[in-house]
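Protein in question filed below.

…
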Amino acid sequence: MIGYLKGKVLDIYKDSILLDVHDVGYSVLTPNPYQYQINTEVSLYIYTYVREDQLTLFGFTSMSEKEAFLKTIQVKGIGPKTALGIFAAVDYSHFVQAIENENINFLKKLPGIGLKSASQIILDLKGKLALTSKMNNHVDDAIEALIALGYKESDVNKVMKSINDDSLSTEAYIKQALGLLLK
C-alpha cells in the first residue's frame, strides 16, 4: 500500500492533483486541491482505497488529517468520498469542535451528512480526534509516541489540547504531555 508520496504537482483538478513522483504520475484526491501550486513540490500522507473495480489515492498534508479521515470513514454510512467532502467543506479543527460540542446542526450542513449521519459521527468520534490549533508533524509524532508507550488515545488527545505552544519540538511535546499525564 502507498502511505506517503513526495513529488511535483503537474496539474490541479476540481477534486484532485496529478503528482509526479520520479516520472510516475499519481492522481491523488485531496480535500482542497487548490491549496497547491503547479510545479511545486508537496508531501502527502496517502490513504489507498482498494475495491474490486477501483484503486483510489487520497492525500493529506498532515498525519492528523489522515487519521481523522480514517476514523471518519469507519463511521457507519460514511465512505471515503463523503469524508473527503467533509474535509473539503470545513477546516479540520471546526469539524473536531463540532463533534466535541455535539453540534448536530453544524454537521448536518456538511455535504452528504443528514441527521442520522451527524448523530452517528458524534457517537463514534467524540473524544477520539486530536484538536490542535496548528496540525503539525511534531504534534502527530508526539501523539503516536505516547500511544506507543501505552497511554490511552483519548487521554493523550486531552493533554495535547492543553499544550498551547505550537513551536515545540516532538521531544518537548512528549515531555510536557508526560508531565501532565503523570499528575
Summary: The chain has three domains: 4-60, 63-125, 137-181.
